[in-house]
Amino acid sequence: MRDRMHPSRMSAPSCIVPSIEQLVIIPYLVPLLPTFHGMESENPYAHIKEFEDVCNTFQEGGASIDLMRLKLFPFTLKDKAKFWLNSLRPRSIRTWTDLQAEFLKKFFPTHKTNGLKRQISNFSAKENEKFYECWERYMEAINACPHHGFDTWLLVSYFYDGMSSSMKQLLETMCGGDFMSKNPEKAMDFLSYVAEVSRGWDEPTKGEVGKMKSQLSAFNAKAGMYTLKEDDDMKAKLAAMTRRLEELELKRIHEVQAVAEAPLQVKLCPNCQSYEHLVEESLQF
User: Which part of the chain is the Retrotransposon gag domain (predicted)?
Assistant: First the structure.
């Protein structure tokens, strides 16, 4: 009974078919390998890419790179991912291509693919986002789903439609207004070029542009009020001068009228006691 309650350990056959070709694994290589736990937040494509980069760096001369990847990949899997590998049908994996296909089928299901494809097709720029930041985020979405299946012209169209108006103005200005006349490949290259050269620019964000417009409006309003005040002052001065001139002219007219209307005073000539001539004329006799 004791022996039956504690049976000897039995190991399940590996899903990987042993290769005739011999491969010596470098001991210090395994700790350098990336790890994949099978969580929803992890990207299977990114894991494979990082894994292949490590393998390419430490490839032994004469050894098949695909065999090296096939032998080392199980060391990268942990937790849920490791359990999945051990649950595969024994001797069902013969090549590195087979292992990749099964791995992606498991950890990159259809719903995840569709979700990432929607991120590409419904892409839009964020508020206050720089051109190069927007482009980098778009390329990250594309690289996260390399099997998206979109043609190049669609990728260009999705990004162009999602750009802000200021980004479109920048793009059209740099290409002389003929961006949409470019072929898809050149259009993608040009977008990458604009993102690269604009990295060092101090592009005003939408908020900054709004602030600048507000400041400009305030400045113009202030300048307008100042000009209006100057005009009012000048008009007031001219009106005062006009009124003063009118008053002076009216006073002169009144004085002339007063003189003209005043009665003529006739004096008696003391020499001849007559009113028929002026006193000054009497002196002449």
Answer: 71-164
